[in-house]
Design brief:
With 414 residues, this protein is of the alpha/beta class. It has two domains: 154 residues, Rossmann fold (3-Layer(aba) Sandwich), CATH 3.40.50.300; 248 residues, no CATH class. The chain contains 18 helices and 13 strands. The strands form three sheets. The chain has a six-stranded mixed sheet with strand order 9-8-10-11-12-13, with helices on both faces. A five-stranded parallel sheet has the order 2-5-6-1-7. A two-stranded antiparallel sheet has the order 3-4. A hairpin with a 4-residue loop joins strand 3 and strand 4. Helix 1 crosses helix 2, helix 4 crosses helix 5 and helix 9 packs across helix 11.
Length: 414
Amino acid sequence: MFCRSQLETLTARLDEPPRFMIVIAGPRQIGKSTLVRQALRGRSSTFEATDQPTMAQEWNGHEGNISYVERGAKATEKWIVDIWEQARVKAQRLPEGHFHVLAIDEIQKIPRWSEVIKGLWDRDRAEQVRLNVVLLGSSPFLMQQGLTESLAGRYELIVLTHWSYSEMQEAFDFSLDEYIFFGGYPGAASLIREETRWRQYVRESLIRPNIEKDILQMTRVDKPALLKTLFELGCGAYSGQLVSLTKLLGQLEGAGNTVTLAHYLNLLAQAGLLTGLQKYSGQALRRRAAPPKFNAHNTALISAQNWYTFEQAKSDRTYWGRLVESAAGSHLINNKPDNTNLYYWRESPREVDFVLAYGDRLLAIEVKSGYGDETHQGVQDFCGRFKNVKTLVVGSSQVTLADFLLQPIADWIR
């Protein structure tokens, strides 16, 4: 079984006495639950999911026992208390030096979850209960809201992102072209030989739940049809392109204003779907004024919404070039070091595909879908305007696309 690199971090933290809760956050269907279940093997543990609560038990604190209730009840604040109390009992029965682990999946779906957990966690710390707690969530917006409002200083965060080329290659033997087209969803990997089925799975089992459950049901969205259309255009038609939100309003019925679009684009980014990169200018005000550059977080989100087959996409040089650039962009979005920021740069007619800012230094990245163009005038102009610039031309004789996707981004900024 394939293990993601974050498993080592999680395992090490679960071996320690409980000092902080562990929060596992990231988009849907990227292996958060699998990662936690792998870490729980061989441990005294309880794993519960709020969207499919399996506990049929109710803790009776006065009598010190457990009574059984009807299965399938909706997870509530009381449900959190019940499963926590049962986990406490299991932890207290363990010998000294051993810890029970309580893992709760999709925790953000329960109202006031963070307030309830804060009280339970603080009580356990006061009583020195040997209970490690792992919280999983696929709605980054609500997870962050709950963590900052109630749980500040009480948790450590492990962020999971979409699968990289190296992971898809090792786990599913993906070729580079397959990764560029089919992206990095592990659950869809077995379907790539049946493209119609693969496309339907991505649209109905990945995209729709991401939008309808993780955004629309969890966050106030006054114009849900607008948000869906923005996602479809941003991924399906414009990933890898600069798009003025003002001009985009003309294509969206009932669009409202650019503030609404910018807010919805931010929600899509937090859900791990679509980002609008800002222009690098050295001045924050000018960055906000420039049109964003759309980039999908996973190229599967592009391919699933277009009707090109894998072979047709490879034969269309323009379309394939767009996928290649989006694959490089998604790699940067998902895997860039925490202390860096990602932008693009353009002064017509010159452009740099991606600019990675780290401290007072810059990495200007140009992406080519083939060999032959060695001039890279946009990169040269960028170097003439800004200081401390390192350049990288991906897909050229300098570095291949495969090498760029396989190496950690930190290697390129050293």
